[in-house]
């Protein structure tokens, strides 16, 4: 039990989590910034602050992700609101944003499929206000979070509720399609570990072999990609070869995979034929 009246600095040092998480939760409970925690270290914790902090720490010790507890996560230098309706944006996914920005031409049109929190779409639109960005998700709850993130970051994105390509107009085309779809196979032990226990299962797993959503995107993209347009997809640590095979079989060219900061082949893609 966290007691009121103790100096904030002493409370921070005594919290049972790692230093970064202690600071994040104490900032959230008190409304103080990181700098203010230092400059007001001798300020006593109020009863309300102590009660809030005690509840936050309890939730974290129960395994709830920090991002869900505080309701936000930084991604590509931007603040993103998150809730249990969406996956928590991860640094690995910044790779697909970087690849998309390198390949999207001036005034280009980009489609983000399964947008979730809007991380990919909003990051691209914020970096490239000249681009026309469309984002799809089957979940209206996820789209509500994504719209909030677009507004909060001053990014113009068109959002559509859609089961993959179904809401797009026939013949609507893009220079680039990007996606971070569900790619964890049903029954994978990781689904019952760590933060994944709290995240929406439908955004994590295809409830099949882990490749069914990727197949749907590969098969449906040619109808919506301009000749020479890029398809970029994030996937699991052991799926790069299988995804490249899907792209090769569908007639994509320049098929390749790119490694994340951990050296893992995290994104694969190719270009649509003429």
Automatic annotation (TrEMBL):
Which ranges carry the Methyltransferase small domain?
Answer: 100-188
Query: Which residues make up the binding site for S-adenosyl-L-methionine?
Result: 114-118, 137, 164, 180
Q: Which PROSITE patterns match?
A: N6_MTASE
- Record EC number: 2.1.1.297
GO MF annotations in UniProt: peptide chain release factor N(5)-glutamine methyltransferase activity
| SUPFAM superfamilies xrefs | S-adenosyl-L-methionine-dependent methyltransferases (SSF53335)
Swiss-Prot/TrEMBL keywords: Methyltransferase, S-adenosyl-L-methionine, Transferase
Query: Which positions does UniProt annotate for substrate binding?
Result: 180-183
Query: Which Gene Ontology BP annotations are present?
Result: methylation
| Superkingdom classification of source | Bacteria
Q: Per its UniProt entry, what is the enzyme's top EC class, as one word?
A: transferase
Sequence ranges assigned to domain Release factor glutamine methyltransferase N-terminal in this UniProt record: 15-71
This enzyme catalyses: L-glutaminyl-[peptide chain release factor] + S-adenosyl-L-methionine = N(5)-methyl-L-glutaminyl-[peptide chain release factor] + S-adenosyl-L-homocysteine + H(+)
Q: What does the function comment of this entry state?
A: Methylates the class 1 translation termination release factors RF1/PrfA and RF2/PrfB on the glutamine residue of the universally conserved GGQ motif.
* Listed NCBIfam families: hemK_fam, RF_mod_PrmC
Write out the similarity annotation. Belongs to the protein N5-glutamine methyltransferase family. PrmC subfamily.
Designated name of the protein: Release factor glutamine methyltransferase
Q: Which organism is it from?
A: Massilia aerilata
């Amino acid at each position: 039990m966290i007691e009121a009246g103790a100096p904030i600095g002493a409370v921070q040092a005594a919290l049972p989590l790692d230093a970064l998480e202690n600071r994040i939760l104490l900032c959230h409970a008190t409304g103080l910034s990181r700098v203010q925690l230092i400059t007001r270290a001798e300020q006593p914790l109020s009863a309300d602050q102590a009660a809030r902090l005690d509840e936050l720490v309890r939730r974290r010790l129960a395994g709830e992700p920090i991002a869900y507890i505080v309701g936000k996560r930084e991604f590509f230098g931007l603040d993103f609101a998150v809730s249990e309706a969406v996956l928590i944006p991860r640094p690995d996914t910044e790779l697909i944003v970087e690849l998309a920005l390198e390949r999207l031409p001036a005034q280009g049109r980009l489609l983000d499929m399964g947008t979730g929190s809007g991380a990919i779409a909003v990051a691209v639109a914020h970096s490239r206000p000249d681009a026309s960005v469309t984002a799809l998700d089957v979940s209206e709850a996820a789209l509500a979070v994504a719209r909030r993130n677009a507004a909060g970051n001053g990014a113009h994105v068109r959002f559509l509720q859609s089961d993959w390509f179904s809401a797009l107009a026939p013949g609507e085309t893009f220079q680039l399609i990007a996606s971070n779809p569900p790619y964890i196979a049903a029954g994978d032990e990781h689904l019952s570990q760590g933060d994944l226990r709290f995240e929406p299962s439908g955004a994590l797993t295809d409830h099949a072999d882990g490749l069914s959503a990727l197949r749907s995107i590969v098969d449906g993209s040619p109808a919506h990609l301009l000749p020479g347009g890029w398809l970029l997809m994030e996937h699991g640590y052991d799926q790069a070869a299988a995804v490249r095979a899907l792209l090769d079989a569908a007639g994509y060219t320049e098929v390749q995979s790119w490694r994340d900061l951990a050296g893992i082949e995290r994104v694969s893609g190719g270009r649509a034929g003429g």
